Amino acid sequence: MTEFKGLDILDGAQFSRDDIDCILQVADDFNHRLETEHSLDLLRGYVLGTLFFEPSTRTRLSFETAMHRLGGSVVGFSSAESTSTAKGETLSDTIRTVDQYVDLIAMRHPAIGSASLAASVAAAPVLNGGDGAGQHPTQALLDAYTIQRERGQLDGTTLVLCGDLKNGRTVHSGVEIYKHFNCRLVFVSPDTLRMPAEILDGLKTWGIDYGETTDLAAAIQDADVLYMTRIQKERFADPAEYERRQGTYLRSRELIERVNPRLTVMHPLPRVNEIAADVDELQGAAYFRQARNGVCVRMALMALVAGKV
Ligand code: CP
């Protein structure tokens, strides 16, 4: 198993099955302890820097909540405009400066590879909270934890991943996790927003059973989980192309009840119009529980890379 102390969390592909099992076990332990304890105090005196150059609700606030629940504290920013980036400072210089102040760095940035760049200049462990259309590994781990909790296990489940699979970083990281659990993967997207070829090639190499279709109703019929994603408006150079694609997979309660009422419905959020509000009342609608799971999974990651578990 990987030595976690000091590790940068950059990419879903960096983990072995043992690594993932360890992270999810620690997260589950923390989750249970939070039922009776408000703070676990494992990282008392530690400071987390949250450097968010792109908008976020869940990732930033759950990282911050996680650090507070571990007894540590947080400094950071939620937009590039409020930092010296606006005066022309490079990302590398910003990271090297923040590295003088904090023990851990959680970062989101619009450029693919930005988290790796940050990790190359920072002594503190860097946790990638999303690098453009690249990776979002902490989200993928909390998604895996959510599937385990909602379905009892992740091994052998059939997952339908739907929406903007080209630009959706949560699914790029997700498949790197699911491949360790012998999941059957079905990708549903418009033709122009398919899962990138290099990721599909990687799945072939691993011998993972996957399919691609545009027919969501057929795909969910035998599925355990539907993982919806937003069409990533901010990644489209042409607004007209976005307008053509958005709403492609608007999901209604009626469809799920008719085709597969036992389906677990997940979404990394924010949703725009991919899931109708009345789906929220279904027992299988797991997306707000999924958001909650972000706290214990990020607690586990920070405690592990700090060498405290
Ligand atoms: N799931 C997720 O990354 O949400 P935010 O963009 O709100 O952080």
Keywords:
five-stranded parallel beta sheet; 38% helix; alpha/beta; 309 residues; four-stranded parallel beta sheet; binds phosphoric acid mono(formamide)ester; 11 helices
Write the layout of secondary structure elements.
Blueprint: H1 17-33, E1 47-52, H2 58-69, E2 73-77, H3 91-98, E3 104-109, H4 114-121, E4 126-131, H5 137-151, E5 158-162, H6 169-178, E6 184-188, H7 197-206, E7 210-213, H8 216-220, E8 225-228, H9 239-245, H10 253-259, E9 264-266, H11 287-305
Parallel strand pairs: 1-2, 1-3, 3-4, 5-6, 5-8, 6-7, 8-9
This protein binds phosphoric acid mono(formamide)ester.
Residues 56-59, 130, 139, 268-270 line the site of phosphoric acid mono(formamide)ester.
Provide structural commentary.
By secondary structure, the chain is of the alpha/beta class. Helices cover 38% and strands 14% of the residues. The chain is built from eleven helices and nine strands. The protein has helices at 17-33, 58-69, 91-98, 114-121, 137-151, 169-178, 197-206, 216-220, 239-245, 253-259, 287-305; strands at residues 47-52, 73-77, 104-109, 126-131, 158-162, 184-188, 210-213, 225-228, 264-266. The chain has a five-stranded parallel β-sheet. Helix 6 links the parallel strand 5 and strand 6. The longest helix is centred in the C-terminal third of the chain and has 19 residues, at 287-305. The two termini are 14 Å apart. Phosphoric acid mono(formamide)ester is lined by residues 56-59, 130, 139, 268-270. Phosphoric acid mono(formamide)ester binds next to helix 2.
